[in-house]
Specification:
This protein is of the alpha+beta class. About 40% of the residues lie in helices and about 40% in strands. Strands 1, 2, 3 and 4 form a four-stranded antiparallel β-sheet that branches. It starts with a helix and ends with a strand.
């Protein structure tokens, strides 16, 4: 691996590790508490609209993108 390839790989890893992407599942009240906590710490980058789980399940799921640093 050349020096250029190593530098490129390191830069890609740093960009990749800047965020964590997760799906959270719970009641709307629980999700609101989790999102509020993420927003209060300054780590919340993006949150999706709530999606119903479907069927008889009353829970919702939301996609979150959080800063790791």
């Amino acid at each position: 691996m050349t020096t250029r390839e190593r530098a490129h790989a390191k830069a890609n890893n740093q960009r990749f590790n800047q965020f964590t992407e997760i799906w959270i599942v719970g009641t709307p009240e629980d999700l609101a508490v989790m999102i509020h906590a993420a927003r209060a710490t300054g780590r919340l980058v993006f949150v999706s609209a709530p999606h119903a789980m479907g069927g008889d399940d009353t829970r919702h799921r939301r996609y979150l993108r959080l800063r790791t640093h």
